[in-house]
Specification:
The chain has 21 helices and no strands. It is globular and about 75 Å long. The chain is mostly helical and about 425 residues long.
């Protein structure tokens, strides 16, 4: 077999192994290692490349953002900031048709800015928002669909673990990726809120709910007490990066310390809780480091095989336009999204398409936002749909089936696709803060 044939076969083998349930980094590393060994017929070369990949990943300074932002997210989650944000948002939207759904989207957007995890958002708001919507006679499918759809904001609005992973794969600045994610994340949140407003008027039975005419608005003092900790944390992290006062690593450290101080002041975290947060931070960090190491050896394997160059020559020979290339890319991500998680899609697809995007003079920061948004649609689509599974497991309510969660999330997946097309058509939306 030629190196190209081995490279193409290895990509297929990786997808099959992941689909069969093999741990993603193991599938990437094992197949890439064997492919390099076969291509060069040199076991020592394959072993040396594996050592280099592991060393480069572990010694990367910006990798320190991973444990710091992970710890910050876990701490503020335990501090109850998610519930506070939801109460404030719910107070403002309660009188509007579908208002609790809009409040859930707004709260998820704010919560995303201090957690960076779609899974955490799905878990928190499945407990907080869905029972409230059910209590107010909302359609169960709409209730779980709103939580599933808005949970993806956690991976788009910075700090985001997926943006960090992309920055390592594409060798881009973590700070630039964070700033680029702000406008697309807010755009998606606004699109969700606007769509809920339209649904409430055109499809009232799908939304459900009853008016809360006697509901009293929350006093401004209480709003301030509930929102100031979150706003302060967002200002320290994103404001520090935006103004240049803090590097992403320093912003992560400042955010983690501030989140810990908030939890201590609120007395919402015991020593046992702190220990659990530290242990979970270690587990998540080790998992992401393993993923990045695997992606590094995978990229080297593709480079040795010449797969990206061959793919570029093939598309160039077919005179494929920018639009055609992006259609192929989006369709591939949507297909893989039904089988794989977001990190897997980024690790498999990005190294293939980066050599095509760079010669076209396109921003790799913009391409990263497109990649994350496109891959995140997979969180809402069967059969994988991780956010949907998390919501179902968190609720543990026999009245709501997994089918209800997926059907409820379907309109929001469609809205994400529309926003993705807008981001592709108007790159300035992703690069506005950077310009």
């Amino acid at each position: 077999m030629t190196p190209i044939e081995i490279g193409v076969a290895s990509v297929g083998a990786i997808i099959v192994l992941i689909y069969l349930g093999v741990y993603i980094p193991i599938a990437l590393t094992a197949v890439s290692f064997v492919a390099i060994w076969l291509m060069r017929d040199n076991f020592d070369l394959a072993m040396n490349l594996l050592k280099i990949a592991a060393g480069d990943s572990a010694m990367e300074y910006t990798f320190a953002t991973v444990p710091l932002f992970t710890f910050m997210g876990l701490v503020v989650s335990k501090a109850g900031l998610g519930s506070d944000i939801y109460e404030v948002m719910s107070s403002g939207f309660r009188r509007v048709k579908g208002g609790i759904g809009m409040a859930t989207v707004g709260a998820n957007a704010a919560f995303a800015a201090v957690t960076g995890s779609s899974i955490a958002s799905a878990s928190v708001f499945a407990k907080v928002s869905v029972p409230q919507m059910m209590l107010n006679d909302y359609n169960p499918r709409f209730a779980v669909g709103v939580v599933a759809g808005s949970s993806v904001l956690g991976m788009i609005i910075p700090p985001s673990a997926m943006l960090i992973i992309y920055s390592f794969v594409a060798e881009q600045s973590v700070g630039d990726m964070f700033l680029a994610g702000v406008v697309p994340g807010l755009l998606l949140a606004v699109a969700y809120i606007g769509s809920i407003w339209v649904m409430g008027r055109l499809f009232p039975n799908f939304v459900g709910g009853r008016k809360a005419d006697e509901y009293e608005f929350m006093p401004w003092r209480e709003i301030a007490s509930k929102m100031l900790p979150t706003l302060g944390l967002i200002t320290i992290v994103l404001g520090g990066i935006y103004t240049g006062w803090l590097t992403p690593v320093e912003a992560g450290a400042a955010g983690a310390l501030t989140g810990l101080m908030i939890a201590v002041v609120r007395r919402s975290m015991s020593l046992r809780g702190l220990w659990d947060a530290l242990i979970e931070t270690g587990h998540i960090t080790a998992t992401i480091l393993f993923l990045i190491t695997a992606a590094s050896i995978y990229s080297r394997m593709l480079g040795l095989a010449g797969v990206p160059n061959e793919l570029g020559d093939m598309l160039a020979g077919s005179n494929a336009s920018f639009v055609q290339i992006m259609v192929i890319y989006v369709v591939m991500m949507l297909f893989l999204g039904t089988l794989l998680d977001t990190a897997s899609i980024i690790l498999i697809v990005v190294p293939l398409f980066l050599p095509l995007i760079e010669p076209m003079g396109l921003s790799l920061v913009w391409f990263g936002i497109i990649t994350v948004v496109g891959a995140e649609i997979g969180l809402l689509t069967p059969p994988l749909g991780i956010s949907c599974f998390v919501i179902k497991a968190t609720l543990d309510d026999d009245r709501i089936s997994l089918k209800d969660v997926f059907l409820g999330a379907l309109p929001f997946a469609g809205i994400m696709l529309v926003v993705l097309i807008l981001l592709i058509r108007f790159p300035a939306l992703s690069l506005y803060i950077l310009n």
